[in-house]
Amino acid sequence: MGISVNELKQLDKNAYQIIDIRDETEISHGAIPGAVALPAEAIEGSEQIDPSKKLVICCSRGKFSVEVAEHLKEQGLDAVSLDGGYIAWLMDIMSEPAEQNKAKDVELSLRKKFKKNIWSKFAKAITTYELVKPGDRIAVCISGGKDSMLMAKCFQELKLHNKFEFEVKFLVMDPGYSPENRKVIEENAKSLGIPITIFESDIFESVFNVEKSPCYLCARMRRGHLYHYAQELGCNKIALGHHYDDVIETILMGMLYGAQVQTMMPKLHSTNFEGMELIRPLYLVREDDIKAWRDYNGLHFIQCACKFTDTCTTCNNEENLSKRVEVKELIQRLKKVNPYVESNIFRSVENVNLDTVIAYKQHGVRHHFLDTYDSE
């Protein structure tokens, strides 16, 4: 009950509808043009569905979509699963000649169309937070998603205009990617002219059977491996692709779910790897602008390269996803009332008034307003 990408290409485009049942976060990293995004449970009876057409159900890799298509078939709809899912479609697209070399167009877009919203903000973060200094050797860590790929292109652009000497290494860690996911990363890097260095580990296998917070453990282990390998390459910094939206969401998540006021810092000293720093050069770049850059250049990325994405219950469960989604939705609702809410959240951690704070921690020591209240 499946249909291949090649078979789909032979059909009249007006004869079918592609229904993308992946979650909103995955879709935000890339989707098939014209596909209707709907959760599986919302397909039946949806006004977005044309029951006269063949319904092609698409998930990440063609596993969940099989059961959904079978159920819809039982309800009398002409439904099939897209073999290989979004990844199969992506691999097919990337094999086309027009996709083979996009580096020049992408670079031009950073200098022209996205100079104000991306390049200038990238450069501002570098300067404001002193992220790059003379003599630095930076490991630009690429996960394969839109954020890290954009960061890599920005660093290449920075090298063309740098006022002092520094070096960059474009580093990809393969913690156990499926062959398809690794191929997507390699092909994107090739098309964008990014000379990546790949090193391997078995982190995915190590955490697959961990029941409590496996994604958290996976992230910590990957960070440690990146520090270690970057250090072996002679680097003193690793650069990660967290952006402005990640920062403000982290601030709210800390308050609402962690009962603490904290932020995602633009740079940090490593506590376990002496002499190493973590920097976040996209700190001032908005996610919507990253998406606009991706779509303008016709780029296609994946959200999570984990080979267990379609079978592991950790990547999309409530523990790891719903809180951030809730905060994203909360910010969007607040923005309708106050268009400045995002910048206000960001600036709030730059304007902390300790005279009006009950207690705070600094260097691991807790301070309370009563400590000095009677002596004032």
Q: Secondary-structure blueprint of this entry?
A:
Elements: E1 2-3, H1 5-10, E2 16-20, H2 24-28, E3 36-37, E4 54-58, H3 64-74, E5 79-82, H4 85-94, H5 103-111, H6 115-128, E6 137-141, H7 146-161, E7 167-174, H8 179-191, E8 196-200, H9 203-207, H10 214-232, E9 237-239, H11 244-258, E10 267-269, E11 277-279, H12 287-296, H13 318-337, H14 341-348, E12 359-362, E13 365-368, H15 370-373
Parallel strand pairs: 1-5, 2-3, 2-4, 4-5, 6-7, 6-9, 7-8, 9-11
Antiparallel strand pairs: 10-11, 12-13
Helix pairs in contact: 4-8, 11-13, 11-14
The CATH architecture designation of the largest domain is: 3-Layer(aba) Sandwich
Approximate helicity band: 40-55%
Spell out the CATH superfamily of the largest domain: HUPs
CATH topology of the largest domain, what is it called? Rossmann fold
Query: What is the β-strand count?
Result: 13
How does the major sheet shape up? Answer: 6 strands, mixed
Distance between the first and last residues' Cα: 77 Å
Q: Radius of gyration, rounded?
A: 23 Å
Strand content: 5-15%
State the name of the first-level CATH class of the largest domain: Alpha Beta
The number of helices is: 15
How many structurally independent domains?
3
Unreliable runs: 307-320
Q: What pattern of helices and strands is seen along the backbone?
A: EHEHEEHEHHHEHEHEHHEHEEHHHEEH
Structural class: alpha/beta
Could you give the order of strands across the largest sheet? 8-7-6-9-11-10
Globally, the shape reads: globular
Mean model confidence by pLDDT: 88
